[in-house]
Amino acid sequence: MSEEIKDENKEIVENEQVEESLTEEALEDIVEEEINEVEEAQQLASEWENKFLRVSAEMQNVQRRGNEERLQLVKYRSQDLAKKILPSLDNLERALAVEGLTEDVKKGLEMVQESLKAALKEEGVEEVAAEGVPFDPNFHMAVQTVEADEEHPTDTVAQVFQKGYKLHDRILRPAMVVVAQ
Amino acid sequence: MSEEIKDENKEIVENEQVEESLTEEALEDIVEEEINEVEEAQQLASEWENKFLRVSAEMQNVQRRGNEERLQLVKYRSQDLAKKILPSLDNLERALAVEGLTEDVKKGLEMVQESLKAALKEEGVEEVAAEGVPFDPNFHMAVQTVEADEEHPTDTVAQVFQKGYKLHDRILRPAMVVVAQ
User: How much is the average pLDDT of B96-116?
Assistant: First the structure.
């Protein structure tokens, strides 16, 4: 509509030959109309500019969040499978603890154990330090206590029942330990 | 600058009392100036609108691609660790094939094998069908051929040297097979 008004006014002003002369009042009205038009259009431009700036900022946020999320997904991608493999490692340790294994069997079991540990290590899985270190509830689960002595000072891990594992900085399962008190 | 021109024109038109009457020509000039202003502002509005529309469309693409990528990352997250665990499964199978294992040791090995396979299966890892199926270069690597016979028709897998595995639809490693020809 504003486009129409503008074109109309333009025509009126340009066709001076036809409508020989416009009255001053008519011209003043046209000027005012045009001034309103300018304000309206500038308002509109500023609205679209703001919308553009908002959506641009939003897109940067979306991209930043997406990148962070992707990095996290990649970093911890092995978490689920690694967690599920830990019982196999436990079983292997138990099997290796059986008395009277032949050399062949022992070697075979150790090979499996080594290859599993190597695979996990490559993906960032590590054993949690336990035996002899200060008790840390972030990495250790106390299942029993013993009296502290010279060898096992108060609040250190005296014995490990089951190894704990972490993936980078994230705990997969805590070590089950006996704490000296 | 355009803002200044507009305000100036407005003042000129409104202060009729002061400059008692503007000539028609001066008024016509003002009208033309204002018309140009309108065009300029409308042009600007339409430019910002287009920029807004472009960046909005781009954002939708970024979000869609991000979601697709995330789904892929999650679906195949276990790929690297699973691949690295396959040699452990091979070692277990070899250990289980050793003659004269005691019942205890055999049971222990089978437990480890079962728990590993279960962990892999939960993450979507499956053995590739091989023995007796038609040879498929997508899943099988032919390392030897034998004469086809009644039991092993042409172009089927006659024997499996090493098991193959896939993660969902993606091959982790092909089965090493003997093909009947």
Answer: 85
Averaged pLDDT score across all residues of chain B: 88
Report how many helices (DSSP H) and strands (DSSP E) chain A contains, helices first.
4, 6
Is A165:A172 a contact under the CB 8 Å cutoff? yes
**Phi, psi torsion values for B141, nearest 5 degrees:** -115, 120
- The percentage of chain B sitting over the pLDDT mark of 70, rounded to a whole number, equals 88
How far CA B49 is from CA of A15, A38, A45, A46, B84, in Å, comes to 34, 17, 8, 10, 53
Per-domain boundaries in chain B:
2-75, 79-180
Chain A interface, mutation test: which of B85, B110, B168, most A Cβ atoms within 10 Å? B85
**Residues sharing a CB contact under 8 Å with residue A55, sequence separation 6 or more, in sequence order:** B52, B55, B56, B59
Determine the residue among B32, B39, B52, B122 to mutate to test chain A binding: the one whose Cβ has the most chain A Cβ atoms within 10 Å. B52
pLDDT at A19 over 80: no
pLDDT in the model for residue A1? 44
CA distance B134 to chain A (A): 31
Q: Which amino acid is at A58?
A: E
Tell me the pLDDT tens digit for each residue of A38-71.
999 999 999 999 999 999 999 999 999 999 999 9
Superfamily of domain B79-180: Head domain of nucleotide exchange factor GrpE (2.30.22.10)
Give A63-111 pLDDT, tens digit per residue: 999 999 999 999 999 999 999 999 999 988 888 888 878 887 888 889 8
Angle at A132 between CA A130 and CA A133, to 5 degrees: 60
The residue of chain A nearest to residue B15, with distances taken between CA atoms, is A28
Nearest residue, CB atoms, A48 vs list B45, B100, B112: B45
The verdict on ipTM greater than 0.95 is no
